[in-house]
Design brief:
- By secondary structure, the chain is an all-beta fold.
- The chain is 0% helix and 43% strand.
- Strands 1, 2, 3, 24, 25 and 26 form a six-stranded antiparallel β-sheet that branches. Strands 4-5-6-7 form a four-stranded antiparallel β-sheet, with no helix packed on it.
- The chain starts with 11 loop residues before the first strand and ends in a 6-residue tail after the last strand.
């Protein structure tokens, strides 16, 4: 089935979710309104088999969705283009799942239990792992609870490493160490839980610095560029095809939502609020954004993946 079929919906329910962006000091006079609707029949009834908090979500080239929400026996759940359960897999390799990405026609899963990054083919067959199994470290061969991985235009990979090492590691296309930057702290270039990472078409690196409540931006060589400091606890980062940056914020001191931000740092929209009903979030841990703006958001506490589609704006 073609990828575009994934975004055809059998039933889209508009809940009057006119979601306002209160732009704050970073984007004065930038109030924006966007109406979103979620797909009521996705995933299909009876096929929502999420057993634990969802920590990662992505889409395969064939339109199927993978998300990390299964138990420890088989942590990766696959749904077809209509949201129907296909299978679970990964338990024979993955010790404690975190993020899942589809990069270069391979599936990458960060494993914070074994301190590794696993690679699978698109059918879920194991290919290889980066890092030394069950050995945490700060050297060039080891990670310590790596949280995410991103692909750069030049073929390099960037790893947010992560819950313990508070650094970013750059690897070549074969997974060999090139360089690193970062340490624990609050200054520019320092991190407190670099939780998600993305790279834009120009090679700039975006890091969700979760505990510091910010997203830091760097040149491809690790040189600091800017810091967006208006978040509570940024969990997820995704660079959309149009260049906008989507950031899921899951802190407790302000509404939990997805920010849509331009490459210049202008808040364009905010989607959602804290809660457990459809269209609301409780720990939006990971997100995937399609070319047309359709969003998949995986939640920790609510233990689900929600699908949102863009609707007509009510305000120009």
């Amino acid at each position: 089935m073609k990828r575009r079929d994934f975004f055809k919906t059998t039933m889209i329910v508009g809940l009057g979710l006119t979601l306002f962006a209160s732009c704050g000091e970073a984007t004065k006079k930038c109030e924006a309104t966007l109406e979103y609707a979620f797909v009521e029949t996705w995933p299909m009834a009876g096929d929502s088999i999420t057993e634990v908090g969802v920590t990662g979500v992505t889409q395969l080239p064939n339109g199927h969705v993978l998300y990390c929400g299964g138990d420890t026996l088989d942590p990766v759940i696959e749904l077809d283009t209509k949201g129907k359960f296909v299978r679970k897999w990964g338990g024979d390799v993955i010790k404690l799942k975190h993020e899942v990405r589809c990069l270069n026609n391979k599936v990458f899963i960060t494993d914070i239990g074994s301190h590794q990054i696993h690679q699978f083919d698109l059918d879920g067959n194991f290919l290889s792992s980066w890092g030394i199994k069950d050995e945490a470290g700060t050297d060039h061969q080891r990670f310590n609870k790596p949280t995410d991985i991103a692909l750069a235009p030049n073929g390099d990979y960037y790893v947010s490493d992560g819950y313990k090492n508070n650094r970013v590691v750059c690897l070549d296309s074969e997974g060999k160490f090139k360089f690193e930057w970062g340490e624990k702290g609050t200054a520019h270039g320092q991190f407190q839980i670099p939780h998600n990472i993305g790279v834009d078409k120009n090679g700039r690196v975006y890091v969700a610095d979760r505990k510091n409540g910010r997203v830091q931006i760097f040149e491809k060589n690790g040189k600091f560029v800017a810091s967006w400091d208006w978040f509570s606890r940024p969990f997820g980062v995704f660079i959309a095809k149009n260049g906008n940056i989507y950031i899921s914020d899951g802190g407790s001191d302000q509404p939990q939502c997805v920010y849509i931000v331009s490459a210049e740092g202008k808040i364009l929209k905010k989607v959602g609020k804290t809660g457990s009903v459809k269209g609301e979030f409780n720990i939006p841990h990971s997100l995937y954004v399609a070319k047309d703006g359709t969003m998949l958001v995986g939640e920790g506490t609510n233990k689900r993946v929600q699908k949102f589609v863009k609707a007509a704006s009510t305000k120009k």
